[in-house]
Amino acid sequence: MNKKLLALVLVLAVPAFAGAAQYGKMTLDSKIESMKKAGVGPVIYPHDKHELLFKCNECHPKVFKEKRGLNDMSMKMNMDGKFCGSENCHNSPNAFPLYICTNCHTNVGVKK
Amino acid sequence: MKASSFRKLKAALLCSLVVAFGYTVSGSVADAAQAQPSKAPAKKEAPAPKIDPNDPASLIYLDTAGKPAGVGGNAAAPASQAFKVGMGWHPQALAATGLPKDKYGLVDWAKLVRENIIKPKHSLDPEEEEMPPLKMDVLIPAKGTFVNDVIYPHEMHTYWLKCEVCHPQIFVPAKGSNPMTMVGIVQGEWCGRCHGKIAFPLTDCNRCHSAPKKAAAK
In this complex, is the C-beta atom of B214 within 8 Å of any C-beta atom belonging to chain A? Predict the structure, then answer.
C-alpha cells in the first residue's frame, strides 16, 4: 500500500519539479549586439522567482509564448507596455520600474 | 486515569461555553450602546463642503507649519502667513482646481504651460527683462538599436529655468559631448538631477524616448 502511494507521488511530482527546474534562470541575449552598444550585458531572467509569485497562465501564453526564440523582446517593446513592461508588471507600481537597468541586465556600465 | 481526563475536558468545555456566552451578551450590549450615538454625527457629515478655489470664502489658509489657519472671507479667523501675503493653498483646494495630471497623478507642468492655464511672472523684479524660451529641440540618439531616440525640448525647459541652471555644470553645451547613460541618470546624474525628484519621474519612458528609430519602426 505504502509502496504504491510512494510510486504515485514519484510519478506525479518528479516531472512537475523537473519541468519547473528547467527554466530556473534563463539568459536572454538575442539582442546582444544592441545591448553591447547600450553598454549592458545579457538579462538573466529568474523564472523560478516568478513561479513563486504567479500562476503559469498569468503570463503564458498571453504575454510570453511558451517557446524559446518566439518572443521578439526589446526594451522598446517593454517600454510600449508589452512583455516585461506589461500592464500590472514592470510598467506599474506592482514591480520595480524599467529604468533600474541593473536589476535585470548583467555587466551594466562595463566597457566592451 | 481516563475518567479524570474526561472530567477535565468537560470542565474546560463548560468554561469556554460560559466565556463565549458572556462575550456575546456583553458584546451585543456594548454594540447597541455604541450604535445609537454614532448614527447622529453620520447624518451631519453627509453633505461634504464643496471647495471652489475661485470663491474666496472657500479657501482654507495654512500657517507656516502647514496647519489650517484662518478661512478666506472670515475676518474673525486667525490670519496665516500665507493669508497675509495674499494667497494660501490647501491640498484639497489644489485638487479641486482641475490642474492637468499625468498618468501618475502628478501635476503636468508642461501641459499647464502649453494650454496657457497659468501665466507666472518671470521675476519679482519688474525691471528685469525676460529671456524668451529657446526654441531648439535636440535629438539625443539612444545607444541601443531598438529604444526610441530622445527629443530634448529646450523650449519647455527654458520656460521654467535659466540657461545657467544646467549649462555648463550639468550639461556641456555642445552636441555629443555629454556621455549620458540611463544608469547615470537613474543614479541622479544628467536628467536625473531633476527628473524623478521635482520633474516627472523616469518611469514615464516614452515621454522622453519619443522619436522612433528606423530599425525599430519595422
Answer: no
Residues A51, A20 contacting (CB under 8 angstroms): yes
Cell 483646494 sits on residue: B93
Four-way CATH pick for A24-103: 3.90.150.10, 3.90.10.10, 3.40.50.300, 3.40.50.720? 3.90.10.10
For residue B51, the tally of other CB atoms under 10 A from its CB is 16
ipTM field: 0.76
- CATH level 3 topology of B101-218: Cytochrome C3 (3.90.10)
Domain locations in chain A as residue ranges: 24-103
Using a CB–CB cutoff of 8 Å, tell me whether B144 touches chain A: yes
B5 at interface of A, judged by CB pairs closer than 8 A: no
Taking residues A81-85, what's their average pLDDT? 93
Distance from CA of A58 to the nearest CA of B (A): 23
Contact B205 A79 (CB under 8 A): yes
- The nearest alpha carbon in chain B to A79 belongs to B205
Grid coordinates in use for A111?
Answer: 566597457
B146·A109 Cβ contact <8 A: no
Q: What is the mean pLDDT of chain B?
A: 73
Identify the closest residue of chain A to B182 by CA–CA distance.
Answer: A99
Q: Encode pLDDT of B51-88 as tens digits.
A: 555 555 555 555 555 555 554 445 555 555 555 555 55
* Chain-centre distance for alpha carbon B206: 20
On average, the pLDDT of chain A sits at 84
Residues of chain A found within 8 Å of residue B204, distances taken between Cβ atoms? none
A38: chain B residues, CB-CB within 8 Å = 142-144, 147
Closest CA relative to residue A67, chosen from A39, A26, A33:
A26
| Angle at the Cα of B150 from the Cα atoms of B148 and B151, rounded to 5 degrees | 130
Tell whether the torsion through CA atoms of B83, B88, B91 and B93 is positive or negative.
Answer: positive
